[in-house]
Amino acid sequence: MRYCIIGNSAAAVGAIEGIRLLDRENPITVISDEPYHTYSRPLISYFLAGTKEEEGMIYRPKDFYRKNNVEVLLGKKAVSLDTVAGEVVLADGQKIAYDKLLLATGGKPFIPPVKGLSAINEGIFTFIKLDDAKELQQHAGAGKTAVIIGAGLIGLKAAEGLIKLGVDVTVVDLAPHVLSSILDEKAAQLVQRHLVGKGLKFHFGVTADAITENDGKKIVALADGTEITADMVIMAVGVVPNHGLAKDSDIEINRGIVTDNHMETSIKGIYAAGDVAENYDLLAGENRVIPILPNAYQQGNTAGINMTGNEVVYPGGFAKNAIGFFGLAMTTAGLVKDKDAEEYVNAADDSYVKLLVKDHKLVGFIRINAVDRSGILTGLMIDRVDVSGMLESLLSVEPGLIVLPADTRHSRLEGGAVTWR
């Protein structure tokens, strides 16, 4: 048996650990177009700001590959698949044979059509990889100016890093407020006040129509007629599945690579996991891409176990985030809005808690400056516990295990969980 994994982030690590749980002998080859040991991508903003060294970003110890008997091909780009012969073709012509293959190629930046953008060769950046942060760091510094297109997680983490380097930052987004995919308007207002206080400037409800260049400066023309001049522009609208390798094969692709509940694709023996894969969303009740690190690891681990010939089912997941900006911590999970859900809110000047409940079950929450024990709420969502009798406690800034029903509390203390399907 020859295992091959394309990608080197959370899903790939999960797969290696899943395989080695049951198969310590057969060879694993990892192919990555990045030249780095596996690292945690959410930390690149701290690297940009200079508060985290590269060594401190590693996702597993330096001896991880050796201890797991993994041949790792770093800085090697896979350019095509031969799913009949069972081979991965690299850019240098080398062919890697496999019996079981995992596609863990992650996501890539979504670049919206902006007039003039393609004609500019320097000063335009994206922000999802360590190399992106390194390149941006070389151009950033006190007195410089930047426009960030996108007020989501990627854009705001880039903004935080740049502000700490002394860069004057303006953020532009078509949405009416920051983090529109994970916060409601009231929560966003709290976050925006905090960010404005740190020096960020915003333009909401407007798109960037064109970008031109004059004497090295970028001029971003907004749809409302505003023009912003800056030294650099960061495109941070979002990410899309990086499924180019599968496009020329018979592997079924929707928005992401379609997988079953074993993380196997439409071709037997080929699996997909992480930001490139579609799988079951417990709350939406349908398959979709959920590009977050915990899901990527669990999907990869599930794929790895199944690649050994054993069987485990991926139970599904949902969106959840734990993030902070300039010391303002927040956790969110599940749905932000749902017309059929009841909303319960506990808002103060410096904190915000919101619960969404449907059919007596928690289907989403937002917690800002009230993040302690958020895992309790996530567990209630996974286990589909009736929360009718504990809403007041769950709305508090620090809910405790004591709010849970006795049987659920005992399950939590013993590490047990109930799957949704």
TrEMBL record:
Q: What is this protein called?
A: FAD-dependent oxidoreductase
Lineage, opening ranks: Bacteria, Bacillati, Bacillota, Clostridia, Neomoorellales
Instruction: Provide any one GO MF term from the record.
Output: oxidoreductase activity
- Sorted alphabetically, which keywords does the UniProt record give? FAD, Flavoprotein
Q: Which InterPro entries match?
A: FAD-bd_OxRdtase (IPR050260), FAD/NAD-bd_sf (IPR036188), FAD/NAD-binding_dom (IPR023753), FAD/NAD-linked_Rdtase_dimer_sf (IPR016156)
- List the PANTHER family hit by this protein, alphabetically: NITRITE REDUCTASE [NAD(P)H], PYRIDINE NUCLEOTIDE-DISULFIDE OXIDOREDUCTASE DOMAIN-CONTAINING
FAD/NAD(P)-binding domain spans which residues? 2-300
Q: Which cofactor does it need?
A: FAD
